[in-house]
Amino acid sequence: MPLPLRTASLFLLALLLTLTGTEALAANASARAAARRAFERGSRLYQQARYAEAAAAFEEAHSRAPNGVSLYNLGQCYEKLGELEKALTSYREYLRLEPKATDREGVEQRIADLDARFEAMRRPLVTVASEPAGAQVRLDGQDRGRTPWSEPVEVGRHALELSLPDHQPLKRDLDVRAGEPVQLQLALTPNAPVVVAPPSVPVIEEEAPVRGRTWTWVAAGAAGVAAAGAVTLGIMARSDSRELTTRMHEGTEVKRLRDSASSKARTANILYGVAGVAGAAGVTLFFVEGSF
């Protein structure tokens, strides 16, 4: 808790001690009176919790007649105002001016406490935890450790980054304010699994088997043979007919030639019919066998 404010009587005593000697006795009486008035005004303002005005009054008193007690009270005002750095400066200057102060031990302890408070305000504690734990912590581009991680950090804006194998890096801005510790619990996102495609196997296209037209050619051959036979027999039948009509023959020979020509003509006609049927069958088989 803050040390008590020094009273005006103590100030006046210190002022008299300061003003002893030949040079002190020659000091301007009006300056001493103004310093005393400023000190008393500062004490009243402090009791009214008007710490900023009290600090101004104590500063005026010290400027007119430098004294450790004014600095002590000035430190009290700054401490109430939360201006810890100025309070520390005032307390240290007080001990410098009052090396044999009876409250030295108490003031030194107060300085140590304010130092700790001022450091906590200037560098608040930042704690970072992650799920999963063990992530690398980088602050402003520098490695600082692994989660869970905790360190005092300077007040201001910082760049925080977490990285962990098989997880996506996490980046965020970190705003550190005076006297405000920061606690973060961050979750890291796993990387998407990599799907490895199986090696491609070349597709070998099988050639369509060449389908033969065996029966087509059989039918065509049959048609050809029948047609050839029909033509041959037709020629032979006409030959017998010419032989019969161009020469004189006996009755038996006439009958033989007539029968031979007639028989060959009939056979030729039959073969012509067979050739036609076989040709038609060949055409039909040509299209039928080609569709399989």
What does this structure look like?
There is one protein chain. The chain contains nine helices and seven strands; from the N terminus they run αααααααβββββββαα. With 292 residues, it is α+β, with helices and mostly antiparallel strands. A four-stranded antiparallel sheet has the order 3-2-5-6, with no helix packed on it. The two termini are 108 Å apart. 21% of the residues are buried. The model is unreliable at 19-25 (pLDDT under 50).
Attribute tags:
9 helices; 292 residues; alpha+beta; Serine Threonine Protein Phosphatase 5, Tetratricopeptide repeat; rod-shaped; four-stranded antiparallel β-sheet; Immunoglobulin-like; three-stranded mixed β-sheet; 3 domains; single chain
